[in-house]
Design a protein that fits this description.
Layout lengths: L1 E5 L13 E4 L9 E11 L1 H9 L6 E2 L4 E8 L11 E4 L12 E5 L3 E3 L6 H5 L2 H14 L11 E5 L4 H13 L3 E5 L3 H10 L3 E3 L5 H7 L5 E6 L3 H11 E9 L17 E4 L4 H5 L6 H14 L7 E4 L5 H12 L6 E5 L2
Parallel strand pairs: 9-10, 9-12, 10-11, 12-13, 13-14, 15-16
Antiparallel strand pairs: 1-2, 1-4, 3-5, 3-7, 3-16, 5-6, 6-8
Helix pairs in contact: 3-4, 3-9
């Protein structure tokens, strides 16, 4: 089967050898696996982080979002059947979705939203899982709760932020404040439902005060956490909560003690990497996300369509991700 892989980590994305086309054997499903014929994928920051930082002794296929059709199932599969259209975000410990066929455990897969085409559905899984787990698992916020409380999202115009804004606005009563620095991303965040949008290129506190907001109950940093950390410590209310998803080199936890601020991390790969007993929750939340999309409650976060799934187009997508200027998700479709 055709696949796109890297064979040497750390190469600059402008180097044609950074991502190359390879031919690999078609995989065979294990007991709880689905064999999926991949039809569309999207690109995430984790793709670039793995390509840059993880050495490999053989071609490594990236890709952590996919839409496709189930071609075969393992002998213990109970949630899906051959012919089902599915979407999912895959696993760090298995070959990725930048291939014609991929194996994925049924417990982290959902049925594709019926109202979306492949490309628009491919934009959703990884970011939807991350956003859902942040709000409802890490912060333990109950749906329809949060009236009178505030949530600040640093980097709200990116992939995860684009879903977080919608989930918080549509499923809770929390006042949502997103940050963005460019006019187009500010408008995007407003369209997604943020009550307020402020500029993370300027001091955050004065902008919140100008809105009449004296501190926030929750803050989620989606990018450059170390850069905003001191401001967030000052902005978050006593006994508030802070979460991050990026990889700051170091954070001084003692700065949180005075206010008893709790610190949360999030990786949507935790359940699949460690095969946790509650792994099936990712299947359940993707099914819920699909139903919310089909009901018109959530919208896709596709930002740009980069054409077919080729090494050249994936290199272009990685380059845009590495520039930190992407709006929404970058999608590629068909081999």
């Amino acid at each position: 089967m055709k696949a796109i892989a890297y064979t040497q980590h750390g190469l600059p994305i402008d180097d044609p050898a950074s991502l190359v086309e390879v031919d690999l054997p078609r995989p065979v499903p294990g007991p709880r696996d689905l064999l999926v014929a991949v039809r569309a994928v999207s690109v995430n920051p984790v793709d670039t982080k793995v390509r840059n930082g993880m050495a490999t002794s053989e071609p490594r296929v990236l890709g952590f979002d996919a839409v496709g059709r189930v071609e075969a199932v393992g002998n213990e599969v109970s949630l899906f059947k051959v012919g089902d259209e599915v979407f999912y975000a895959g696993s760090l410990i298995r070959p990725g979705s930048n291939a014609e066929f991929q194996l994925v455990d049924e417990r982290i897969v959902g049925h594709k939203p019926r109202s979306l085409d492949d490309a628009h559905a491919a934009a959703l899984p990884l970011t939807a899982i991350t956003a859902w787990e942040l709000l409802f698992d890490r912060f333990d916020i109950a749906e329809k709760s949060g009236k009178g409380q505030t949530l600040l999202l640093i980097g709200a115009g990116g992939g995860v932020g684009s879903i977080l804004v919608q989930l918080a606005r549509q499923l809770t009563g929390i006042t949502v404040i997103g940050t963005a620095s460019r006019d187009e991303t500010k408008q995007w965040v407003r369209e997604l439902g943020a009550h307020h949008v402020i500029d993370h290129g300027k001091p955050l506190g004065p902008q919140l005060e100008a809105l009449g907001i004296q501190g926030v109950d929750y803050a989620i940093s989606l990018t450059h956490t170390d850069q905003y950390y001191d401001q967030l410590v000052e902005i978050i209310k006593p006994q508030g909560k802070l979460a991050f998803i990026d990889d700051p080199k170091t954070l001084d936890g003692m700065k949180l003690k005075r206010k008893s601020i709790s610190l949360h991390t999030e990786s949507m790969f935790t359940r699949s990497t460690y095969q946790t007993p509650d792994m099936i929750k990712q299947h359940e939340l993707l099914e819920r996300v699909a139903s919310l999309v089909d009901a018109g409650t959530l919208r896709t976060t596709l930002g740009e369509h980069f054409g077919r799934i080729t090494a050249e187009n994936l290199r272009r997508a990685h380059k845009l991700i590495e520039s930190h200027t992407a709006k929404g998700k970058i999608v590629l479709e068909s081999f």
